[in-house]
Request: fold
Amino acid sequence: MKSLTKVFWLFGRSGAGKTTLAVRLREGLSNLNIPVAYLDGDEMRSTLCSDLGFRPDARLENHRRIAETARLLADQGLNVVVSTMAPEYAQRDRVTQVLGGKLVWFYVDAPLEVCMVRDPKGIYKRAQAGQLQQLIDYPFDAPRAHERANHVDTITQNVEECYHAILAVAKSHLNDYVI
Reply:
């Protein structure tokens, strides 16, 4: 069966719900017998990208490596779900350069104040203690129109609603699979 694999990239602030939704999407596609892999930004940062810091050039290289890994997996017939913060236009532009038409963006959106309350990894607490101040001070570039990111609002929708919306978009991009 001819297939056109896709890379479903969820991006947003830490605490917005990216990982929760990405894991659910991977499970949902797998349950539909669609070959799928998952790349988590934190896991990639601690393994393949562990030699990189957080300077602008290093952040770009981090996203390039993740995108290249996703491309290699997609070229082998796997659909790929990725979750990273990707807060800068430059990072998302680099990902788009690598993945082109394989890429489907999802902007997992929650305001900084809400993410700071959720704080699943304790990083905002560390930032408030002065250990990671750049995380709070760092601007988050909302998606531009040409990025065509699917907006996922984790404030007005619960996890189930967000998941079903994402799954519907993902399925619409997987026309070659029997779903």
Q: What stands out?
A: The chain has a mean pLDDT of 88. The first strand starts at residue 7 and ends at 11.
